[in-house]
Amino acid sequence: MFDKWTQYSYAAQKQQRYQLIKFIFIFIILYVIYNCLTTFFFSVWTVENNTMRPGLNSGDRLLFSSFSPPAWLRNKNKIDNNPFPFKRGNIVLIDSRRDKEQKWPLRLVDSVVRFFTAQRASIFSSRGQYYIKRVIALPGDEISMNNYVFRVKAAGSSYSLTEFELSEKPYHPSIPKTSELWDDSVPFSDRMDTIILGPGECFVISDDRSNTNDSRTWGAISSSLITAKAVLRFWPIFKIELL
User: How many angstroms separate the first and last alpha carbons of the chain?
Assistant: First the structure.
């Protein structure tokens, strides 16, 4: 009797349509909020390897800030002339395929998948796409390396400093022991000739200075590939810290 009432009652059908519309509306609102937060403000990523040891380890979960203030707001800050939302020494997220065009229907489907999986899954292969590295030089900087430590002459500066002196927060890279047979021609040797970064170029490096890929092998990268800045490690719980 109840099933027949549900099937033939106009009021019951209207109530069902209302519940469906309500569900769709709530989903759309949550979806829009989610995309706004992850695109313009915050996103969560997991460190998938040990290239940032000893500071970060595989499995650590980081909160990234994706927010970039508009140009007119940045120009009001007379003290900081850095036009980027990140500085030397910051840990950043690099999307190596950001400049490659992906069809918008697939991007939409991918966004939905990431929404329901809390960014744990994607229809696009993430292998070789996202990297977590440290920025040590900005456009116009002059940079060199000796004994796996970089010296940076900031654009407009008359002298060079070590990478650590230009960083807001201290960090301790892992310095490997190299064979005496290695020379400067080896990609992961302990020396690098002086280079000057061009407009819109940044130099990113791994904290593990052994044979891990970064700007030593890629070369300087476009600043447009840097999509977010790490602000907090919240997992493991006993290692919670601001970055």
Answer: 63
Decide: pTM greater than 0.70.
yes
Residue 166 CA to residue 147 CA, distance in Å, equals 18
CB of 155 closer than 8 Å to CB of 120: no
> Using an 8 Å Cβ cutoff, are 192 and 163 in contact?
no
For 180-216, the pLDDT digits (tens) are 666 666 667 788 889 999 998 999 999 998 878 899 9
Where do the domains of the chain lie, and which CATH numbers do they carry? Answer: 2-66+84-242 (2.10.109.10)
pLDDT tens digit sequence for 31-58 = 777 766 766 677 888 898 899 999 999 9
For 139, the token pair is: 């456009």
Find the DSSP H helices in the chain. 2-8, 10-36, 71-74, 104-116, 215-218
Give every CB contact of residue 184 below 8 A, 6+ residues apart in sequence.
Answer: 191, 192, 193
| Alpha-carbon gap, residue 129 to 142, rounded angstroms | 27
